[in-house]
Design goal:
The chain is of the alpha/beta class and about 240 residues long. About 35% of the residues lie in helices and about 30% in strands. The chain has a five-stranded parallel β-sheet, sandwiched between helices. It has a five-stranded antiparallel β-sheet with strand order 10-9-8-12-11, sandwiched between helices. Strands 13-14-15 form a three-stranded antiparallel β-sheet, with no helix packed on it. Helix 2 runs parallel beside helix 3. The longest helix has 21 residues. The protein is elongated, with a radius of gyration of 22 Å.
């Protein structure tokens, strides 16, 4: 199921947009989504920050009292959320600013149903690709969407898992088994004993009892797991 957030400071516009979304759902009968309404950018961002709320698609009015839609979109991107954004506005003056935050569409009011439906087709398609290619991890400050190949390796530390990324790391409270369930569908990951999950695209070399990663880290292989891991590693590259 998809979550679609609609943010506009005029109730009539919220009603109109929701009516379009209902018609779109009638056309796309296999598509399941939930629509949530926000009367200001501040209300939307408060929900995002306090409740780990991450919509799959965001429909944003640009001209609102208080924070503008452009400012809200910039804050969403700063928080690490890359959901598709469709801007709705009465003017084309901010089109360039809209595309600077990677907006997928910029629609001028009054909305045209055909153009609106085409924008949704594109946005839902992009959202599907994002869902399929990312994992969502709950970290301090909210939900972080991570591209799996940015993960170099993961280390288990009791009730926590440390994810070492290319440029940062996250310590999250979850079991190694739960993290493995999230990653095992991506073919580049392999387990090394109980403590490590390695991204084999980031392995520089596999020696007798140690693995060198491209971020400079050395992973020591448990003696009784050496042959097992090497089999996984060479199978990934040569099968």
């Amino acid at each position: 199921m998809y979550i679609i957030a609609v943010c506009d400071d005029e109730e009539k516009e919220l009603d109109r947009i929701e009516a379009f979304l209902i018609r779109y759902r009638d056309v796309k009968q296999t598509l399941v989504y939930q629509v949530e309404r926000f009367a200001s950018a501040e209300e939307l961002l408060e929900r995002v920050r306090e409740e780990d709320y991450v919509p799959d698609l965001l429909l944003l009015d640009i001209f609102m009292s208080g924070m503008s839609g452009i400012e809200a979109a910039k804050e969403m991107r700063r928080l690490g959320h890359d959901m598709p954004i469709i801007f709705l506005t009465t003017s084309t003056d901010f089109a360039l600013d809209a595309y600077r935050v990677d907006a997928i569409q910029y629609l001028v009011k009054p909305l045209n149903q055909e153009r609106f439906f085409r924008a949704l087709d594109s946005a839902i398609g992009q959202s599907y690709k994002i869902k399929e290619s990312q994992i969502a991890i709950k970290v301090a400050g909210g939900i972080r969407q991570i591209q799996p190949n940015d993960i170099v390796y993961c280390e288990s530390q009791k009730n926590y898992q440390v994810l070492y990324l290319l440029a940062e790391k996250y310590k999250v409270r979850m079991t190694a088994g739960s993290l493995w369930e999230m990653l095992e569908g991506f073919s580049q990951f392999g387990r090394c004993g109980r403590s490590y999950i390695l991204n084999m695209n980031h392995i520089v070399s596999v020696e007798r009892e140690e693995i060198i990663m491209d971020n400079g880290s050395t992973i020591y292989i448990p003696r009784n797991k050496t042959s097992e891991f090497k089999k996984v590693y060479f199978s990934y590259y040569f099968d």
